[in-house]
Amino acid sequence: MSTIGLGPHGEKAFPADKLVLTESEAAAARAGQFSAAIVLHTTTSDWSRQELAGIIGTLGLHGATVTEVVDCGFDKAKQNEALNRLANTPIHAVISLPIASAEVLEAHRAIARAGKKLVLLDNAPSGLRPGVDYLAVSSADNFGLGAMAAELISPWAPEEGVVGIINYGAEFFVTNERELAFRKWMSARRPDVTLVRSRFARVEEAGAAYEKLLADNDDLDAVFVAWDVPAMRVLARIREGARALPMTTVDLGNEIVTELRRDGPLKGVAAQRPYDQGAAAASAALLGLIGRPPPAWISSTGLMVTQANLREAYKTVWHAPAPP
Amino acid sequence: MVGVEPDAADGGKRRVGRPSLLESGGASLATVLGLIRSGEATTRLDIERASELGRAVVADRLTALEALGLITEGELGPAIGGRAPRNMRFRREAGAVLTAHVDRASIAVGLADLAGDLVVEHHEGADLAEGPEAILDRLVTLFLWLLEERGGKSSAWAIGLALPELARADANDGEALGPSAVDALRAWRSFDFATELALHIGAPCWARSNTQMMTFGEMKRGAGHGFRDVLCVRLDRSVTAGVIADGRLHTGAQGNAGLIGHIPTGEGSELICHCGARGCLDVVASGEAVARAAAAAAVDGRSRYLAEMLERQDEVAETDVSHGAQLGDAFCADLLGRSGRLIGESLAPLVNLLNPAAVVLAGTLAHSGEILLAAVREAIYRRSHPVVTRDLRIVRSELAGSAELVGAAALAAEETFDPSRAREWIAHATPRRQPSFEAFLVEARGRKRRFSSRQPPPPPPRPPPRG
């Protein structure tokens, strides 16, 4: 399946799995003995762990060291503080997942102004210039993931049903893309379905966002949640409630795997490949450091996962066999 | 409030008593707002000096602007003997500017604040062959989604729209345009996109060509930032240009300024340009020309790298030429060098004419590496008068695929707050209620109704075949 989503500035995607250093590039990277820091929204999710493994593994393979991994805990002030500090730290590059847009713009610019290479994961704050302020954005084909999620939930939405979208309230490229694609797919293939939406400002509030959606729409038939961590909170509320609403989400974390096996409300997921995305981000950083500008938008296609193909999909995403 | 009496000389009404702020204060309100918005004067004293309005008038206008929600109190300034003055801040969050970019194979939308700074943007693939109504539909859907969490449709104060320099028949295709392509072109050319968007969203819409909006964007926020005279050149499938003179975008008599792809290069070519001439810059040095030359070289063996690319991926593009040059393929390097020379030689007379502070190169070819850029620079410096090149900067664009959105947002914001326009809407607190705009919407709706009523009814459905 080819990538369908465009980048944050309309770029055509460069496939993540094709971003591999040539022998001479790898030799140049090893000779550089580069150092990098990583700044993430969280380090506790399965997605983050996979992403980190891809970044650290690829950097290590090319002789680069990771000096620091910062867990912002979704706190913008914490991310800004970390980035401003790293701008004055003797490192060559920063790989960062911006957790918002305008609120973290200047701190990311500080990295570029300090002459360090910047690679972004998933999000490019509006105002940052590709090729000038940052080297590349590495992400999933989030537009494709949103379309997959819609395709997965469609069989469970009755004719003229109501489907809810529970999404993140911050200005965030990947969740915007997923929702837009979900809506576009439904509008084209299921124009009979009514879409309603609820938002959460913090992951902890996803359950409450679901309750509000339900309260405002007592005829709700199915739900899409933007990614797995808030999805687990919504699932818990669904279980507590009177109706077992079918649900889809994005990401194949271990808790989601358990849910898919249960044959419960979770009907399928659109899975990212965080390890591959992390590896691509590291490769982009290395290429930039040796003077070979990488593509500005690097993306990996998602996987449509149901109970039926769970085992094979897990191996692809996790690069490891599925747990028994 | 103003009382009115019948008066034949004034459409049946004569005003008595003091005119309301609505009637008389528009100009001074716009002046004061403009000073605060631009940052030229933000304290009461500075505003009095800059506007030459009296103290009482300034105080009155500041109170009115605050009540309208257009300004608010900001930080305290430094005290210069006496109390520290309060700065007034323009409320850029008081409304939103929508921005859209329609291109050959994609559309993009964005939402900006009233300073014209993009807050969010989205790009997706599209097919212009679907026709303008389908594209309009999709843009409106996306706009409404952007506005949903930001106050709804009524928060949209203006729309900036970048439209393609429409596809024209290329005589080099060697095939006549099929009926569907001709129909698509006709549909686009007869469709008043800007008016349709204004009707759907209820906000004024400013439309310019993609290259013009890109130029404005690069001048405001990109590689041309800080310069008032800029020549921006897009090097994509075709070569087009935009001109900023003294800070203003030049659009030309029919809005078509910038078609520099038809500058004759003096280099013979067996290919005929779609304008009918030979040797146009478009057919010898555009992205399409480079791709055509690359494909030929891949087939006849002049470029080993391109031959490998062709075998791997079934086609070669200008980006492959760029990679080939970086990897040392002689043909690729020569091709980019020649293209850069032709482009630079074509731009040199424009540099002589316009004396820009900066030439900004955008598009896929512009970002193809150093060879082309160096060749463009060398040709411009060689062929232009030294007086106009002494301080000239020749640089690459910085905004990538967002330039059109950025430019459209900035232009729409600038037009909205232009004093001559702002004076009319400002007392109504939003340009949506500007009397001339409301009249425009009424007239446009009437035109649409009249056009619809003149259309023949659709034919009745055919009866099913017998037997």
Output the CATH topology of the largest domain in chain A.
Rossmann fold
Molecular shape of chain A: globular
Q: Most extensive interface, residues per chain?
A: A-B, 29 and 25 residues
Could you describe the largest sheet of chain A, including whether it forms a barrel?
7 strands, parallel
Low-confidence regions of chain B: 1-15, 167-178
CATH topology of the largest domain in chain B: Nucleotidyltransferase, domain 5
Strand share of the residues of chain A?
15-25%
Domain count of chain B: 3
- Nearest-integer average pLDDT of chain B: 87
Helices of chain B, by number, come to: 18
Give the strand tally of chain A: 13
Task: Report the top-level CATH class of the largest domain in chain B.
Answer: Alpha Beta
Per CATH, which architecture of the largest domain in chain A? 3-Layer(aba) Sandwich
Report how far apart the termini of chain B are: 78 Å
- Helix-strand pattern of chain A, N to C? EHEHEHEHEEHEHEHEHEHEHEEH
Largest sheet of chain B: 5 strands, mixed
Structural class of chain B: alpha/beta
Strand order of the largest sheet of chain B: 7-6-5-8-9
